[in-house]
Design goal:
Mago nashi protein, alpha+beta, 2 domains, globular, eight-stranded mixed sheet, 8 strands
């Protein structure tokens, strides 16, 4: 039997499959942020963020025994400001601190963070840290990955299994309440579409409306 390699999947608001997706080549002086988490024990084995000074970039993830998914990414100015503030607090580019805990926690997975700006670049790898600022930075990156993954899940299920949208919105509300979403405003366009979409269950349309009100009020 002939095996045909599967293409990389690139997701936008409208899901699209392309072959030969390549990373944008960046100049040495260009500001560039990179986060990667990998743990082969997890169902989602790899999550990766790459974006520039304007927040434009991609979010990649790969689940066990599945093709890599590549999503368009736009990090908001508010979240970028938080990230830059923590990098400054850490004196990341000029410093040499070792953020890795003295004990090895490899079972937790490997996190890689890098920043390139003004001709300087630094890359750090760790599996656990007790540094408060680095912990906050990692959590922000994780929250971006969580929100982008949830958007992908909702968009995909909306097309293929709309009856499962209520379950997705319950998960999203839980992520809001747990503080696992970097920027709730990211969901406003999608939730506005869902509340008017008669192809999904009424309970989901009503839930989308409630979530929009929660975002507007900033209360979870």
């Amino acid at each position: 039997m002939l095996l045909i390699p599967l293409p990389t999947v690139v997701s936008q608001t409208k899901l699209e499959i392309v072959t030969g997706a390549k990373e944008h080549e960046r100049s040495p002086g260009e500001t560039f942020y990179h986060y990667r988490f990998e743990n082969q024990r997890f169902t989602t084995q790899v999550q990766e963020l790459e974006f520039d000074a304007g927040g434009h970039g991609v979010f990649r993830f790969k689940r066990k025994d599945q093709v890599e998914i590549v999503n368009q990414l736009q990090v908001t100015a508010t979240v970028l400001e938080e990230i830059n503030s923590i990098f400054s607090e850490l004196n990341f580019l000029s410093g040499s601190a070792d953020y890795q805990h003295k004990k090895d926690f490899s079972h937790l997975g490997k996190t890689t963070i890098s920043l390139r700006r003004g001709g300087k670049e630094r890359i750090v790898t760790l599996n656990y840290t007790e540094n408060p600022a680095m912990s906050r930075l990692i959590q922000i990156f994780r929250n971006i990955a969580t929100q982008e993954n949830r958007i992908f899940e909702i968009e995909t299920i909306r097309l293929s299994d709309s009856i499962s949208i209520p379950a997705q919105l319950r998960l999203l509300e839980g992520e809001f309440k747990s503080g696992y979403i970097a920027d709730p405003q990211r969901f406003v366009p999608l939730l506005n579409e869902l509340r008017l979409d008669e192809a999904i269950p009424l309970i989901a349309r009503n839930h989308a409306e409630r979530l929009l009100q929660m975002i507007k009020k900033g209360k979870w």
